[in-house]
Write a structure and sequence with these properties.
9-stranded mixed sheet, 56 strands, mainly beta
């Protein structure tokens, strides 16, 4: 029993092995007719190890070639031959010596094993005739070398002229290329993967008259679409002195635009490399452009584009190549809207309008395009405007939010004498803000030679540093960098609405304004950033800060968080209002670094005579939180830090109203009381002295002009009837008060008695006393009176006098009283009956 079971198991194993062997060696038979002129070659794929063999006529081989008229049966020694072998089926067609089999091209022979296969049609034709490859829908799409098709089905077209072969290009299915016309012979290849269900070639061959150029490629563009095409042999050189044409079939209600994305030029000995356009409705066809020119856009309808080579330099030919894109889209609603950009008054400025992300990456060809046009035919995805001109631009774009503006302006100073007093505005010009395009970035490059520095000011809005404790929430911000060939000082992100009034920096400075959202359009009207050139400063950077009384101001060292560059010094000048006190504090206790060379310092000093300066080294504790009653300085000076160590510091400032001490208040009140008591005592003494004074006397005021020139009729009463010669009674205490103060009231001034005048009286008022009575005027010499005053009489007056020797003033008065007093002060003149 056991022996029978063992025998049965052995037989089953042998049967299974035989079945597996038969399955492995499934046979294929390929029969080729002689008239078909077709050859089949089965070989190992490139780089594949021989893990499978071909068994044909009991012979094991790694390659099998079947020629026209042969019939071969073969099998593979493995279960998955598609992993190892590829197959080439080449059909030679001679259109020179015999009739050409025009029409549909079939995949022959049938019944081939499922391998990666390539069908090759080698068609020989005369250069006097042309061949046309017509592709069935969905047509073809050209791809760059090295690119693969999604379904791994690809076509390769080569043109054969004499003995030269030119690669027209590689194409995938599902595109817009409908026909390819070639001069002379052609080698057409179709690559199919082993599992492709494709059973037809998808093209036919037709005979055409000579096209007198290398090739013509026709593309049919329906609806909104985009196509990318390349010159033959791309990325290698276009054949020397050759001509080829692309024909684009575009609906008349659509608009096409051409963009050259990649090209290079050869070195020409004769002729010139160029492109020619046949445009619909153009009176100057063909229109010739250089490859470096902006190509036509907004083309209404079908057009042709031709590429013409030149005779190249034999020693250094160079390479002519071209990769370009054609975009077809509907006409835009606002394509006729013209926007004026006036840059005529600007200087050293460029404005670039582009699609979002265009500067940092190459856009996908399938993306919808936004075009900027300088005129109806000159449009591109990128347009650069320069200062000194006025532009009229329009947009071909469904959504203008896809566009951005990037601008750059340079400001420089060569001689400080010419630019020191000038203040430059760092605001975005209205010519840019009025466009319906969002400003992405505006860059100011400020160039200053040695010994000239740059001062940045924001007098009204002021600036704040963007730190975690005080984040910027505005629609725009600034990034300020001072740089040389060796070092770079980045102040970080700053935005309006802070406490930094101005920043002084050495070296060249770059300021980049970056916008966020649509709010900048409204806030751009209030920009106040300005700059000027100033003499050399000691530190690399100096901040002037006026803290907000209602907020806590945070300030940090430049290059945060990467650390202050070695041997760099930065200062902050903080303004403290008179009626307030500032509180200064550091965000950490130590600098947190060690020096490899030199020392790092932090110093704090009030701006006052004899003020004490607080200085801390990198190995010491930072100053404690303190009150600052006056404007003060904070300075940070770096050394050369040790390995992987950086100097980063942050401090804060707050303001509060000054608190007056109670003792000071009491002292002020007491002082006011003492002053009041002294004043009251003085008043009482004056009243008492007034009551005890002698009878009042008449005092003549030498500063009053009592003799007014004029007619005698000025006084209605006569001299004898009026009292113009009688003087008011004046308190002698007011006249001689200074003498009372010197004598403490103990001296009673001497007085004379008024004597009435008994002589004749005229009609004019008396003349004032002579100048000798005035202390501050030199004594005048006696002169003759004018003739108009001959009738004026001088009255005699008696004045109170002080005893001689009491003071210098009284002595001068006594001396002057002894002088001649007959000279009057004023002259009486009559001028045509008017009073002057």
């Amino acid at each position: 029993m056991a022996a029978g079971r063992a025998l049965a198991a052995l037989l089953a194993t042998l049967l299974a092995a035989s079945a597996q062997l038969l399955q492995r060696e499934a046979s294929f038979t390929i029969s080729l007719r002689s008239v078909d002129n077709t050859t089949v070659l089965i070989k190992l794929g490139p780089g594949v190890l021989p893990g499978c063999q071909i068994r044909a006529k009991y012979v094991i081989r790694s390659e099998l070639k079947i020629k026209p008229g042969e019939s071969v049966t073969f099998a593979f020694t493995c279960r998955s031959p598609e992993k190892y072998f590829i197959m080439e089926i080449q059909k030679n067609i001679d259109c020179v010596s015999g009739p050409c089999p025009f029409g549909d091209v079939h995949l022959y022979p049938v019944g081939l094993p499922r391998l990666n296969r390539t069908f090759i049609w080698d068609v020989k034709a005369s250069t006097k005739a042309g061949l046309e490859l017509q592709f069935s829908t969905p047509w073809l799409r050209q791809i760059e070398p090295g690119e693969t098709c999604p379904d791994l089905v690809s076509y390769n077209i080569n043109s054969c002229i004499d003995r030269a072969t030119v690669n027209i290009g590689t194409f995938c299915r599902n595109g817009s290329v409908s026909r390819v016309k070639l001069l002379g012979g052609v080698v057409m290849s179709l690559h199919l993967p082993w599992d492709s269900p494709l059973t037809t070639s998808g093209f036919n061959i037709a005979n055409r008259a000579s096209i007198k150029r290398l090739c013509i490629i026709e593309s049919i563009l329906k609806g909104e679409s985009s196509i990318t095409l390349m010159s033959p042999n791309y990325p290698l050189g276009f054949p020397e002195d050759e001509l080829m044409t692309w024909q684009f079939v575009v609906p008349s209600n659509m608009r096409a635009s051409v963009f050259f994305h990649n090209y290079s030029l050869s070195n020409c000995e004769r002729k010139e490399e160029r492109v020619e356009y046949y445009l619909p409705g153009s009176p100057s066809n063909p229109e010739v452009f250089k490859l470096t020119d902006s190509q036509p856009a907004n083309i209404a309808g079908s057009f042709n584009l031709s590429l013409q080579g030149c005779d190249q330099d034999a020693q250094n030919p160079g390479i002519l190549r071209l990769l370009f894109q054609v975009v077809v889209q509907h006409p835009q609603v606002d394509e006729n809207v013209t926007h004026i950009v006036d840059l005529s008054k600007e200087w050293n400025m460029t404005v670039t309008i582009h699609s979002e992300g265009w500067l940092s990456r190459v856009p996908l060809m399938s993306e919808p395009v936004c075009l900027i046009c300088k005129d109806p035919r000159s449009c591109d995805r990128l347009l650069t405007l320069v200062s000194g001109a006025v532009y009229r631009i329009s947009f071909l774009c469904k959504d203008l939010s896809q566009l951005r503006i990037t601008a750059e302006k340079g400001i420089s100073c060569v001689d400080l004498r010419w630019c020191q007093r000038k203040v430059y505005s760092l605001s975005v010009p209205k010519a840019i803000t009025q466009l319906p395009i969002r400003l992405s970035k505006f860059i100011w490059k400020l160039l200053a030679p040695d010994l000239i520095n740059i001062e940045i000011m924001s007098p009204s809005l002021k600036l704040q540093q963007h730190v975690p404790e005080q984040r910027c929430n505005t629609s725009y911000s600034y990034n300020i960098i001072s740089a040389t060939s060796k070092t770079e000082l980045n102040l970080g992100v700053l935005c309006p609405g802070g406490s930094i009034e101005k920043i002084q920096m050495r070296n060249n400075v770059t300021i980049s304004l970056k916008t966020f959202g649509k709010g900048f359009l409204n806030e751009s009207n209030h920009q106040d950033l300005k700059m000027s050139f100033v003499p050399h400063i000691k530190d690399e950077c100096v901040f002037t800060v006026s803290p907000d009384p209602k907020a806590k101001v945070y300030l940090q060292t430049p290059n945060w968080p990467y650390g202050l560059p070695p041997y760099v010094s930065v200062s902050w000048y903080v303004v403290v209002p008179q009626k307030q006190v500032a509180r200064l504090g550091f965000s950490k206790e130590r600098m947190g670094m060690a020096c490899e060379t030199g020392r790092a310092y932090v110093s704090v000093r009030e701006e006052a005579p004899g003020a004490e300066e607080t200085v801390r080294r990198e190995d010491e504790l930072l100053p404690e939180t303190r009150n600052m009653h006056r404007d003060f300085w904070v300075n940070v000076s770096n050394c050369k830090p040790g390995d992987k160590m950086q100097l980063t510091l942050q401090f804060w400032v707050t303001l509060a109203d000054k608190q007056i001490d109670l003792g000071v208040i009491l002292a002020v009140v007491a002082g006011a009381g003492v002053l009041a008591a002294i004043g009251l005592t003085v008043c009482c003494v004056k009243k008492k002295k007034k009551k005890s004074q002698d009878p009042m006397v008449g005092v003549y005021n030498a500063n009053v002009n009592t003799q007014v020139p004029g007619k005698q009729g000025l006084f209605k009463k006569g001299r004898k009837n009026n009292e113009s010669h009688v003087y008011a009674v004046i308190d002698d205490a007011m006249v001689y008060g200074h003498l009372l103060k010197e004598s403490n009231g103990s001296v009673t001034p001497e007085v004379d008695v008024y004597r009435p005048f008994d002589g004749p009286m005229g009609s004019l008022p008396p003349s004032p006393p002579p100048f000798s009575f005035r202390k501050d005027i030199k004594r005048c010499s006696n002169t003759e009176e004018p003739s108009s005053l001959t009738d004026t009489e001088h009255d005699t007056y008696t004045f109170a006098q002080q005893k001689s020797g009491q003071s210098e003033d009284s002595g001068e008065a006594s001396e002057k009283n002894s002088e001649d007093t007959s000279m009057s002060l004023l002259e009486n003149k009559e001028q045509d009956g008017s009073v002057e």
